[in-house]
Amino acid sequence: MAKPSNLGSTTKVVDPQELYRVITQASSQNPAEVHASSKRVEELLDYFGTFDGLHEIAATRSVPLPVRKQSIIQFKNKALNHWRSRKLLSEEQRVRIRSRCLTFFDEEDDTIAECNEVIVAKIARQDYPVNWPLLLADIMDVIRTNLEVLCGSPNNDPRSTLSLRRGLALLNSVLKEFSGVKLLAGVNTMVNIIDQLHEVMFDYYSKLSSMISALVPPALSDQRTADNLIVAHFMYKCLVKMALWLWPRLFHPQGGFAKLEPWFLQLFQSSTGQLKILFELRTNLVIALRASGASDRLTLLSIDRLTRHVRVFGKFFRRLQQLKPDKFVQLPTGNEIVFYYWDRVVQATNGPPELIQDAPTAVFPVRFLLQAMVLFKENLSRWTPFRKGGPKTETTLSQEFVEDAVRLLVTRFIPLNLADLQGWMSDPEEWVNLEDKENDQWEYELRPCGERVLMTLSSQYKVYVTPLLETTFKQIIAQPTVDSASVIQKEALYCAIGRCATHLREVIPFSQWLQHNLLAEARETNQYYPIIKRRIAWLIGKWISDMCSPANDPNVWDILTHLLQDRGPGTDSVVRLTAATALQECVDTLDFDIDVFVPYLPTAVTELVRLMGETDTMEAKQRLAKSLNVVIQRAGTRITPHAQMISEGIPQLWTAAGEEWLFKSQLLVVVTSLVSAMKEQTSLNGLIVPLVQDGLSPGVAINLDEDALNLWLAAVRNSSSLGYAGGPGLIDLVPLAVSLLSDNLDLLGKIVSIIESCLFVDAPAVLQSFAQPLMNAFVKALTGQAIMTNQKDILICLQFLTQLAPAALWGQAMHFAGLVSHIVNLLNHDESSPNLLTECIYLLARIALADRQMFLQLVSATAETMDLPEAKIWEAVLDHWWRQFDHMSEPRHRKLAALGIASLVSTGRPEVLDRLPNEIFNLWTDVFFEVKESKSLAENEDASPLTLHWDLDQVPQSYYADSESTVEFDRRKTFLDNDPVRTMQLTNYVAAALQEAERACGGIHIFNQYISKTDPTLLKQLQNELQGE
Which residues form the Importin N-terminal domain (predicted)? Predict the structure, then answer.
């Protein structure tokens, strides 16, 4: 065995015998052996030689099949990601593996062969053509040799046919891999591959297609027919891969692809012709098969393969259309083939319904018809004579053609069929769930696809479609609807009107229709009327949400609330669920008028809550909860009388939901909206507190934490107090907030906001019970791994705290938590963020302004804790007070710094007074100048002389912390208006502080010793400011 090259000392070489033994155990039917071997398998995958050993085991036919499968799957999953690793593979081993990959052509097991296809494609992407130059030639040799056997020998050779199939599948896999490469080297390789293959593969397919075109019914039971079909299918897929890669590049003038354009056009035109031949052939064969009743395995296999082959043409055309829709309509025979497809749709609808089935043996398979309708729909926008911009196409549809298409869609594809009705009756909730998903699945179901084709026709040919639908509407609404057939046809027309609402709003009198027809139909007790009632609810929701009529007609709410609550004959749960969705769509519009809706609000809310309790599926419950949430949001404070009823139903729904996190999340959203709409209502605390606690509990928080925090924040911001007489209060959640603040970095930003909001509601109550643990948590977050933004938020929160509660409630806790020590360390650290340091100065200024004696005590206690002289603490604080002053851009912050330092001056501390002549006087004069300038402006405007510059500007929006439309916004605004920074006149405050400092330091003589060092000009300027000159 080859030895690893350039390996570290930890690399081990695999023992082939142990590898075989472990892989054998891993493929065992005994779960104990599989479990025991799994860990060892993982370990061996890091050994040198393991990948080569696995591949050798997979290629050895004498090894038991389960062991071979396990080996090649392990190789596919692990080796391809380490193909270039010299630690795990030598170049000699890579050569052997590449050579061994080409021994699987006659592999009988599909799993092994499919894994080998992936392996070859992934290796080829890295090694072809440099390290694996003969790959393509070797594959083509196998294809050519075995194709000659298939076409030239009268006898069937199963092994040769198998090799041919495997070779084509392998080639298809390689083409698929290289077609996804974006780098230039890969693009060049793909060009080289196409140059080698395009003509020869086209010739091969042409030879086989001529054989297939001559099929007769008796030949379907021949193995040779099934073989020819699957081989032709794989060949054509290879051609499609090359053509699709080439198609968008044909329009790049610099790409050099023009030489391949004739081949592409030849392939496309021959494909359109071949599709027609194959579809007609298949139709005749299936009809003959049905007549004869033949159902042997080979016949059914041949029909299945022929059906799949016909379908691949549609996939080819559809993908060309998606990649270059404007160029697709210009292709020769491009429009012709789309019309051919549409003609097959018309042909299918003219026959008995049983001819259309989702089965390979159907005369008109559903998937083929879907391809036809999608191709037709996408081309419609290119055929309109009214198209804006872009080149005009010569292909346009006549009025007769358009009207016939509309009639066909409305009468044959849009009406509910028997399968729809059976699904409705057997599982109503699931049926509604699937109907709501039609927007995503319309390309895979006939009815929604037909609706989309009608919508496109209505948009592109509205001059034809609108009058036709208008006339049909007037005819249908006047006719009695009593039997199932007339009900289903009317439902289809209502669907068509809803889908084309934006084009019909000018011609259909919606209000009159509501009053004279829909009101009565919504109350009809006919056994077939749930079909129409469900569509009426859907139609109203569609019409209103598409802004075709404003949601201010009482008849809209009359019908929807009736359908929502009716449980008598002629209705069912599908109607009620659809009405709930329609109600949401109508309420959630710009023109919604709450005054018109208020009389219907009690019924709407009651029935939505009731339906949530009645439905079985979580998907239905979730949809109803979304509808309820929208109603609450749009109702605003009008929802208050119904809040108790809504809240009483939540606990049972919450408990029953178990681990249905999406529904529980929606319930939290509902309660959040309810809290936000009610404002200042604390009656919901008994519901909010346990919901938040449960939503943030271990194992649950990973799914619900965001919604639970949103509810918590909304509750606090809209509450007038944290306590609640006779039940749990929001104050009970503070310990949870402290815990999360301390230990959960992911939620830190939202938790700080919640605590800040709690402080705005009742800071003394919070601090009386939780001052120390709260302060400890703040400091832990600040000293931990919190990001800069969160640290800044915490410091801002602490600034609010010092203003919202007396110092006696927070001073001691600050010291014991080590907050000031942490701030001093930040100030002394050279790499601290200037933004963070500035926030620290703001906090210190707030402390000094709130209680200067507490500030002195904190400095003294901190010095003792840090084992430093007090002078060192003062030095750090005062140095940065001056340094960070230049980082303060907002005038309110600069005045805060001036007020804070004035408060410290008033204490008479020598460390502070020493800074008076230079730093402090300069700081004050800077702010005085701003204040003076503002006073001058204010006087010119006849405003109050205390109106300052920062009063003329709005505070940044960030100050309100997204609290707009909550009670907290008013609290913050009042708080801002009463801020000492806004209410105190700086000159008066500074003058008083200087007088106090004079007394505190021992008299005028001592005080003058500090003042005398001041520059005379600066001192004169300061005196003038203080005297108001």
Answer: 37-107
Peptide bond into 365 cis (omega under 30): no
Please name the residues in contact with 577: beta carbons below 8 A apart, sequence gap of 6 or more: 428, 429, 432, 611, 615, 620, 623, 624
Alpha helices in 437-529 (DSSP H): 438-441, 446-460, 462-477, 484-499, 501-504, 510-513, 519-522
Q: Where are the domains of the chain?
A: 182-396, 899-938+948-1027
Three-class SS of residue 133?
A: coil
CA-to-CA distance for 1029 and 1027, rounded, in angstroms? 6
Indicate whether 506 pLDDT > 50.
Answer: yes
pTM score, two decimals? 0.84
Please name the residues in contact with 212: beta carbons below 8 A apart, sequence gap of 6 or more. 228, 229, 232, 278, 281, 306
Task: Compute the half-sphere exposure of residue 303: CA atoms within 13 Å on the CB side of its CA.
Answer: 26
CA distance 792 to 837: 9
Cα–Cα dist 727/689, whole Å: 10
CA 460 to chain centre: 32
In 180-260, which residue ranges form alpha helices assigned H by DSSP? 184-213, 223-246
Structure tokens at 614: 């009645």
Confidence category of residue 953, pLDDT binned at 50, 70, 90: low
Rounded alpha-carbon distances, angstroms, from residue 841 to 367, 724, 827, 901, 917: 71, 38, 9, 10, 21
Q: Quick check: helix, strand or coil at residue 1019?
A: helix
Phi, psi of 48 (to 5 degrees): -70, 130
Report the length, in residues, of the chain: 1029
User: What tokens does 183 get?
Assistant: 């780098």
Q: Which residue has the tokens 């919202």?
A: 804
Catalogue the E-assigned strands of 493-612.
Answer: none
Query: 88: left (phi > 0), else alpha (psi -120 to 50), else beta?
Result: alpha
pLDDT digits (tens, 9 = 90+) for 514-551: 999 999 999 999 999 999 999 999 999 999 998 888 88
Higher model confidence: residue 213 or residue 293?
Answer: 213
